[in-house]
Fold this protein.
Amino acid sequence: MSSIYRLGVVFFTLTFNGCASYDPVHIPMQFDDHDRFESTGSISSSPCKIYVAQIEDKRLNRQNLGRAASSTVYTKDIIDWIGQGLVSLGGGIYKVVIPKENSEPVMSDYKISVFLKKAYIHSLSTSKSATLVLAVNYSQKGDDIKYSLYRGSDTSINWSSSQDEIHGAFNAAFIDLLDDLDKDLIELCRS
């Protein structure tokens, strides 16, 4: 009986784990134009300027984005990707400005500091879920005026845990987060 049991264990292991890929998946993060977010406010003749003072990754493991199927997901481009999403906001009501390195500060109505708290994906056999959490500190003329946490998530069918699927899930989660951030920035600029 024990040889049949051992044979069953070997068969089960090879059947269900033999085809699984354990290779890490590297995701080049790019905020896609077709996913570009559209603001919900009306266009202004002189948009409010939002200056991004910093974007900082506060996660302990800054390259690891979790697991999809049996593979660990990594990226190196998450800060640039967050910046791409932020500058896509506004739609004429406000304009988000991210300065280039070593450039002079831009005259702005408000300054924001953005901190990435969480960015992860996990999958089950039939679904995957991507989540992002950003903390945003708002200031005006050097005084802190507001601190908010924003969370975006996307849960969808897990077809193959491919690079494109994972990237699309993160973009969808980011757009979900940007919806709430956009509403707060519109309110801030109208006050």
About this structure: Residues 13-20 have pLDDT under 50 and may be disordered. Residues 6 and 12 are 10 Å apart (CA to CA). The radius of gyration is 21 Å. The chain has three helices and eight strands.
